[in-house]
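the two lines:
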Amino acid sequence: MKVSELSRRTGVQVPLIKHYLREGMLPPGRATASNQADYGEEHVHRLRLIRTLIATRGLSTAATKEILEAITAEQDDLHQVFGIVLGVRPAATAAPEAPEAPEADPDAAAPEPAGLADARRLIAEMGWDVSRGNPAAHTLGEVLAALGDLGSDIDWRGLLPYARLADGIADLDVRQMSGDRDLLAQAERAVTVAILLEPAVLALRRLAQESKSAHHFGGHHPEAPHTT
Amino acid sequence: MKVSELSRRTGVQVPLIKHYLREGMLPPGRATASNQADYGEEHVHRLRLIRTLIATRGLSTAATKEILEAITAEQDDLHQVFGIVLGVRPAATAAPEAPEAPEADPDAAAPEPAGLADARRLIAEMGWDVSRGNPAAHTLGEVLAALGDLGSDIDWRGLLPYARLADGIADLDVRQMSGDRDLLAQAERAVTVAILLEPAVLALRRLAQESKSAHHFGGHHPEAPHTT
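prediction for all of em together
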């Protein structure tokens, strides 16, 4: 199909498609004339993935490009793709030529947040095999530090039941990604599951919270629709 | 303590403390002289809560103010506090004088996203008691629509196992909030659990994902540290 048809099918304007082509985020079409190219279903699909990452998930063009490069370059190694998606390994050092680089002192740049030691205790208690550079450990540390500042009695031990449920979610995630599909489809699916399901997980928790709140705390207003 | 001491204890600059006082986000101190006031531990605590919501969670000052007002005004009704935190009921119409307003046609303003019907199917299947205005249903619908656009075979039924784990997380949340503490502390804790634990839940999933990815997909590079 021509670029105009590709635009019509995906709702992405032609100048933006050309931008993605220039950036290498979209593979070139098959040249049919001196300045014409033919695009296929793989281009429709790739454009939808780009728009999902940018519009639905709010990723930057740069982050999206990095993830797309990972899908293409590392499609035979889901663990590498995953590492880039999780921010554990920067895309630049994740190339097979530099296998030693990723773990090199990732904490040197940023100061350790106050709760990081507790986050590492939780990780150890769960028996999780996590590299020191995983930014999620820092996030967890920040939350634990904030809970402490607020005088909350929720500490890293209090988060263990949450960690067990998160472990169950990650089990589902990994099971979604396995299968006998082709490698590119698997790598893309790893990205979809990891990135696109994040807002879904939070939304499901919020929906369940409203329901449980109605049943546990909704007894104050007998006229309210949610009182049981 | 004087405002300077309050600033020292919390790390919040005096002009910003005065701004929070003017906005009513921080209750006034006890007047000791014509232009002096005495602040207590409750002010230290409230300032830490404000900074956590704004700095750690990235909420706007307006959203933070709304939540703080909910804590103060609705502290005897955790379900109301929760509704405001979840965005189900806007704070303005959540006042007890207007009990009918909250459910009034919440979808009129925004168009229904493509996946919303599927999101409602999932909610019904889970037996969740959720108001039509809960924005999390829209978020879930957007994710389901994006999955469909990408040709993913994950549909609302595929998210049911996730929903069951999210239900377990919400169970933990509600259990954290119950107890015989005073009402203000309970209301504040509802906010902390609902808002501050969101990044923790995502971080725990990402940590578990890296660990599971290492064990399931990490066999490609025998020299990598995470290969089992």
